[in-house]
Specification:
DNA-binding; four-stranded antiparallel β-sheet; homodimer; Rossmann fold; 41% helix; five-stranded parallel β-sheet; 12 strands; 21% strand; Arc Repressor Mutant, subunit A
Amino acid sequence: MPRILVVDDEEPIVELIRFNLEREGFEVIATGDGDAALKKVASEQPDLIILDLMLPGQDGLSVCRILRNDPNTRGIPVIILSARSEEIDRVLGLEMGADDYVTKPFSPRELVARVKARLRREAKTPGSLSGQFSRGPIIIDPERFSVTIKGVKYDLTPKEFELLCILAREPGRVFSREYLLERIWGYDYMGDSRTVDVHIRHIRQKLEQAPELPQLVETVRGVGYRFRENL
Amino acid sequence: MPRILVVDDEEPIVELIRFNLEREGFEVIATGDGDAALKKVASEQPDLIILDLMLPGQDGLSVCRILRNDPNTRGIPVIILSARSEEIDRVLGLEMGADDYVTKPFSPRELVARVKARLRREAKTPGSLSGQFSRGPIIIDPERFSVTIKGVKYDLTPKEFELLCILAREPGRVFSREYLLERIWGYDYMGDSRTVDVHIRHIRQKLEQAPELPQLVETVRGVGYRFRENL
DNA sequence: ATTCATTTTGATTAAATTTTAAGAATAATA
DNA sequence: TATTATTCTTAAAATTTAATCAAAATGAAT
């Protein structure tokens, strides 16, 4: 159930958008001014933001710029709403890091379509995030979703792979179970942190089939796990 | 500092791209028509080209073809910008084997991500050529929509063929259903991503009639599909 | 207008992955 | 050494995801 933040000070517009998005199964939160918007983003972690340009207080463009400069919010897609339809606006909005742009008056159906398209596109494009990297004899390639050790390929499941990626990106650093859960499972995951243990075990089982390899994933008792530093 | 050549005749779009690429530390040169583009390529030796399809004078497709036929420029990755219209798309995807492909309207962030991804693997991927190509014992012929394995020809339908083409052009790389839908069906396709599954099934059914062939199209559960790497 | 091939949808089944849970093993500490 | 806390191991339950099948919709060709 993706969560959408709508930032607009015109109440009827907000309600129009809310009605249409909720009908499609989205969760909608809304706010009418820029500063409040930034707070909501931090507290509610929306999956997408619909942002009007003319706002009381902080205006839409600066909100957008601020969102883009913060590593925590940089990844959240922003669709800009604007009354002015000049090209200059569109370009400016996109330069500020918006992902799409809808001019008022807009058709609700179109807006919903764009929201969906954007969420879908943002969702999964393996590889656009990061390229292949290696640690000692082991090569990790997100684009191919594979781990290769001495020429032998090992297939991991999604959770296993993500886990390994996070650990291997910073060898030596210890990651707590809680941190890993939040990164991989999401901040609102409500399950047991022992789940991590099981996945770590699966990774070990699969990778230790490779001969003459020291243990890659180390346990740090009472703290968490880390990827072996010197390989 | 990689140097990017942007070829597009819409000034605002060029500026949008320039702004975003320069912010990321790329050097950007730009031109608005096809003939000038070819000269710039020769004189400036860009590391990557972003090419709009609709250009005055020499159109994008011919520019691309000329670049591909010249040994000096064959290796330069080309990312194509397209407004997604049917026939252009077909030629683009099949005959030209574009390195990557972004549909308008696009998000600058996404474009930058693709540029980075493409530069990262520039070395490995040999510039794709038009016309038929082969992977192990299988020959793929975009002109005929056909696949030949050990002398036996198999006819595929258009969707099946496009799918196979995209997968087979980069064996080993995983493509998400979302990406495939966007490339083949268009960014505004509103259907179910399970559609891809059915076409994959059809491809498998047809091709596995060929004897003694390992599975060509591999499922990567939770992620997408990929073409078998070592054949 | 009918036929045929292709594409898409939906329901069902099968399979892989993830999660839970509980006892065994291990390390840390008194 | 005994105690305790923590992690490992295992298996099975629950969930998610993909394969399969059939039928409906679409579209092109006759």
